Amino acid sequence: MAVDPARQGEGIGSRLMTALVQRAAEAGQAVLVLLGDPEFYSRFEFVPASRIGITGEPKWGEFFQAAPLGDGGVVDPGEYRGPRGCYEYAEPFARLG
């Protein structure tokens, strides 16, 4: 997800993320994961992915985040019942470094 720098600060990114989380939950997805600024994504209830048992590249650190999903949206990390383990990006993305 990206917002044209000329349009940043207008709430476009927040509306897009809110819609994404809602649609993913409605579609029955168990979790959303991403690499991004924890300060920004915490407002959408993303937490460090390690809190729900999902690990990634150590260099990702606090920027590797997850939103555990359930009926109606994000659920408390303690209620997460989805997949756990090591996350790997698809090969084309992994090549980006």
How large is the radius of gyration?
A: 14 Å
SSE ordering? HEHEEEEEH
Strand percentage lies at 15-25%
- SS-derived structural category: alpha+beta
Number of strands: 6
The dominant shape is globular
N-C termini distance: 18 Å
The residue-averaged pLDDT reads 93
Our count of domains comes out at 1
Helix content: 10-25%
Largest sheet: 4 strands, antiparallel
Number of helices: 3
Low-confidence stretches are: none
Brief account:
The chain has 97 residues and is α+β, with helices and mostly antiparallel strands.
Q: Which helices and strands occur, and which strands form pairs?
A:
Elements lengths: L11 H15 L4 E5 L2 H4 L5 E2 L5 E2 L8 E7 L2 E2 L10 E2 L4 H4 L3
How would you characterize this protein structure?
It is a single chain. With 97 residues, the protein is α+β, with helices and mostly antiparallel strands. It has one domain (11-93). Helices cover 24% and strands 21% of the residues. It is globular.
Write a concise keyword list for the protein shown above.
alpha+beta, 97 residues, two-stranded parallel sheet
